[in-house]
Amino acid sequence: MSKHHVEMTINGRRHDGDVEARVSLSDFLRGDAGYTGVHVGCEHGVCGACTVIVDGVAVRSCLMLAVQADGSTITTAEGLAAPDGTLHPVQQAMLEEHALQCGFCTPGVVMTLAALTQGEQKPTEQQLIAAMSGHVCRCTGYQGIRRAACKLAAPATGETA
Amino acid sequence: MKPAPFDYVAPASIDEVLTLLAEAGGGATLLAGGQTLMPLLNLRMSQPFIVIDINKVAALKGITHTDGGIRIGPMTRQCEVIDNELLARELPVLVQAVRHVGHHQTRNRGTVGGSIALGEPAAELPATAVALDATIEVRSVRGTRQIAASDFYLGPYMTVLEPDEIVTGITFPGWPAGHRTLFSELAQRPGDFALVGLVGALAIDAGKISRAGIAWFGMGPTPIRARAAEQLLLGQTLDNIDVDTVAERAIADTAPFDDKQTSAEYRRTVGRRMFARTLREALNIEVAA
After folding, report:
1. What is the ipTM of this complex?
2. Helix H or strand E encompassing A55
3. Cα dihedral sign for B157, B163, B169, B172?
4. Quick one: average pLDDT of B90-108?
5. Which of A63, A64, A134 sits opposite B191 (nearest CB)?
6. Which of A24, A70, A17, A67 lies closest to B52 in space, CA to CA?
7. DSSP assignment letter at B56
8. For residue A131, which residues of chain B lie inside 8 Å, CB to CB?
């Protein structure tokens, strides 16, 4: 089995380490880098709890090897709020809409919504709701998540994209 | 739920990949988007001794116009297909199909070639390639082969790809402007594999159907081309099509099976109606109330 030196920027800080080839990005983020906000649920790409932002897009970190993320810029749930504790707009919307119960799926949901709403052009409600199909919430708290997603969408213009 | 140990290499050129594949003698696995391979590794259903990551091979990426149509590099991510203007204009049904592949998060990593080469019988992309007469280019140290998509699939997850071969391009022939598209699928949840699905295109010339390519997914061990239905449609004027008869003929070509999701009979029943409805929509035929 091969070992690899990896370096990546996680939540604005540089991390490096030596990993076995088989180590997933999710395990590296939790175990080596200490970002336990990366929740590892199913480990086969079904639940979406481990979703993080890699180079600007939301991906399932259990479906990527840590060695593949060498040189990447990664954001986890810990990297969203401002240093003074001010919540990220996605976190604020989740809070206001009671969009979490046990909280296990929450970091993944938040990272998908954060990735999709980071640009100038906001996605539509439909696009955000469709992206939520990539997350399983076993508390069945979907209505709150849906409301939070709608709050983050572009204002409706009467036309759909 | 952790993979068995393996060696990892990430070459930058196709030639390096070919050499590694040849040297591995069948013990290697190619890592494209990883959205199927990583679960298989995590579950230890796949235990290669070497994983060849092809994400750094720039020559395997991109969407380009060629003489033969539109060539898609196998490492083109599914999300790139959705955002591609050339495809939106010239091959809209492919974009429609990709929108149904997995979820937003998996399409950000998942690739066109990965899905094509995997050969999941209920997946959208293999059926789209079969329906639209795509050609799949594969290479090994032994040479290059051009394989018609309809000859590529042998059974569930079984293709004509040899262990030392890699898909290096998928070329979709052009369709005339104004061609009609067909796409429909039934799945238990958005992003799941289809229980029943169909995809295709129809070209119309001087009021008659001049070209037809339609294929089923989730309706047998491989994507299945609805050739008998296509034959019924060819040469017909749009007001002269007995949609229900064509749908019946299309179902006759399928070979669905019973599985834990549903029965073969259910698939046939849904498929018949889905085909008729989708064909009517494509041809703008109103259903009498």
Report:
1. 0.94
2. none
3. negative
4. 97
5. A134
6. A67
7. T
8. 103-105
* A67 vs B contacts (CB less than 8 Å): 8, 10, 53
pLDDT score recorded for residue B268? 98
Strand stretches in chain B, DSSP E: 7-9, 28-31, 50-53, 63-66, 69-72, 135-140, 143-148, 153-155, 158-159, 166-172, 180-186, 196-205, 208-217, 224-225
Phi, psi of B89 (to 5 degrees): -80, -45
Q: What is the pTM of this model?
A: 0.95
Q: Domains along chain B? A: 7-53 (3.30.43.10), 58-172 (3.30.465.10), 180-283 (3.30.390.50)
Statement: residue A1 has pLDDT above 90: no
pLDDT at B56 > cutoff 50: yes
Q: Is the distance from CB of A20 to CB of A30 less than 8 angstroms?
A: no
The pLDDT assigned to B185 comes to: 97
The DSSP bridge partners found for residue B196 are: B186
Nearest CA in chain A to B109: A59
What domains can be seen in chain A, in order of their start residue?
3-152 (3.10.20.30)
Which helix (H) or strand (E) segment holds residue A37: the answer is none
**pLDDT one-digit tens code per residue, B192-225:** 899 999 999 999 999 999 999 999 999 999 999 9
Contact A64 B5 (CB under 8 A): no
Name the percent of chain B lying above pLDDT 70. Answer: 99
Residue type, B39: P
